[in-house]
Amino acid sequence: MLKELIKKDEIAAMKAKDKARVSVLRLINADIKGFEVNQREDISDEGVIKIVEKNIKQIKETLEYAKQSNNEEKIAEGNFALEVLTPYLPKQLAEEEVEAMLKEIIANGNYTAADMGKIMKEIMPKVSGKFDRSKINPMVKKILG
């Protein structure tokens, strides 16, 4: 399970005295533990992926602010955290692959621009954790163009 892998990596980082890596992995493990305590159940790999995605999204937002304020230290921290967390996500899909999926969904459903919600509902389960969600809406608009 992904949860055990992250925990094992945290322990390895502790032994290697890699404080920065330990810090990033500790946050993820805390989120996982929080989820399990709140839900009173073991977390699935999909749940772990959602937590990692959420953390990556927050890091990217922080990076944007750090870049605007030219805070080199925060930029370096954010890039390192992304480097640590990205391997825990499934293999990412290329834009071309997602675009092909969207074209197929739109063609099969005879969707128009008014059916944006239906298109999004159909594509999201297929790309969850494998593609940046924020890029999908503009892609749909471009295809329906």
Q: Features of this protein?
A:
single chain, 145 residues, mainly alpha, Hypothetical Protein Yqey, Chain: A, domain1, Arc Repressor Mutant, subunit A, 7 helices, globular, YqeY/Aim41_N, GatB/YqeY domain-containing protein, GatB_Yqey_C_2
Written account of the structure:
By secondary structure, the protein is mainly alpha-helical. The protein folds into 2 domains: 2-88, Orthogonal Bundle (Hypothetical Protein Yqey, Chain: A, domain1), CATH 1.10.1510.10; 95-144, Arc Repressor Mutant, subunit A (Orthogonal Bundle), CATH 1.10.10.410. It has helices spanning 2-15, 19-39, 45-68, 72-85, 95-109, 116-127, 136-144. Helix 1 (2-15) runs antiparallel to helix 2 and helix 5 packs across helix 6. The chain is globular and about 55 Å long. The model has no long low-confidence stretch (mean pLDDT 91). It comes from Clostridium tanneri. InterPro entries: Asn/Gln_tRNA_amidoTrase-B-like, GatB_Yqey_C_2, YqeY/Aim41, YqeY/Aim41_N.
In short:
This protein has 145 residues and is mainly α. It contains seven helices and no strands. It is globular, with a radius of gyration of 18 Å.
